[in-house]
Amino acid sequence: MKHVSHILCIVLAVLLASCGAQKGMKKPKHLTAEVKKAQLHIEMDDKQYDLTASMQTVANSYAVLSITPLLGIEMARVEAMKDSVWVIDKIHRKYAVVPYGQLNLVLTPNVHLRNLEDIVMGTGLKEGEKTQTLRYKALTHTIKVNITYPTIIYDKPMTIRHQDLSRYQRVPIQKLLD
């Protein structure tokens, strides 16, 4: 299903898109952040997607983006830890684990967990704004992402719960995104 592959590629790009967008901005002083029902408008090359996402982060350890385009059913998930990013295709029950070093071979500028936390915490938002625009280049693709934050809940107690992948097949990232 080519559509799911595009969505997974976009989900990964959304989490990685803030790499250069937050330079010079203040870092929030929060330990956790959660955003429910964020609206994503994504333009990738000549295609456009409108998606709903939930995002959460626990500072210095974890960031997650969950895509639920139809009826609130999660179809894709990206979990970022200190050393790697896990991309999960819930529809086909497949996942890939990609170390930041491998991602940074194809992404410019380099990616690390702090950038991903900044997206969830809305670090790029200016006072009174609800929408953040991120621009990104990945190899030959140009990606523009508009994230509209309904509300960001800070410092809510959270438990890190990794997806149970015991019934999923691990595959290389290239195969997951093909």
General description of the model:
The chain contains four helices and eleven strands. With 178 residues, the protein is of the alpha+beta class. It has one domain: Clam (outer membrane lipoprotein receptor (LolB), chain A). Strands 1, 2, 3, 4, 5, 6, 7, 8, 9, 10 and 11 form an eleven-stranded mixed β-sheet that branches. The radius of gyration is 15 Å and the shape is globular. 31% of the residues are buried.
Outline of this structure?
This protein is of the alpha+beta class and 178 residues long. It contains 4 helices and 11 strands.
Topology, element by element:
Elements: H1 2-16, E1 32-44, E2 47-58, E3 62-67, E4 76-80, E5 84-89, E6 94-99, H2 100-103, E7 107-108, H3 113-121, E8 131-138, E9 141-148, E10 152-154, E11 169-170, H4 173-177
Parallel strand pairs: 6-11
Antiparallel strand pairs: 1-2, 1-9, 1-10, 2-3, 3-4, 4-5, 5-6, 7-8, 8-9
